Here is the input.
Amino acid sequence: MTDMTEGGPVRAPDPEKNLLETTPRKSQGTRRGGGDPATRGRTTIADGVVEKIAGLAARDVLGVHAMGSGLSRTFGAVRDRVPGGSKSVTRGVKAEVGELQTALDLEIVVDYGVSIADVARAVRENVIAAVERMTGLEVVEVNIAVSDVKLPEEEEEVPETRLQ
Here is the structure.
C-alpha cells in the first residue's frame, strides 16, 4: 500500500514490524524516567521543622506573651543569655509528623486582659495556615494549653547571672 503525498510516494508502515526495532534505542544510562517529576521520590519533613514553623506563627499572634511553661521559659532565658546561645523558637511546641498529616501541641502564655478563646482561635488559624502552606502537610489538630497569664506589673522572668 502506498500513499501519494506532495513529496511523492510514501510507503505506509508495515503493521507486522515492531516500531521499537525501527527506532534508534537510547542507552540505558540516558533513559529518562516517566511520569510527573513530583512523583519521583519522597520528601520527609522532620518534627523540628514543623515545630519551628508553628512556634514562629504562634508568636506572631497578638496576645501571645510567650511560649512554654514557666520552667522551660526560665531555662530558655538562661540559654538565651549564654554567648553563642540562640533563642529557641520551638519552646512550647511539640509536633507529631506523619507522611501526609501532622498534629501539634502548643503551650502558651497570654497577656492579661485578652480573650483567651480569641487568642487560641487566632493561634490555631495562623499555625494551620503557615504549616500547611510551607509543608503541604494537613494539620489535623492544634491543641493549645494556656499555662500562664502575664500580668502587667509582673517583671520578666530573667534570672540573675552570677558571672560578672
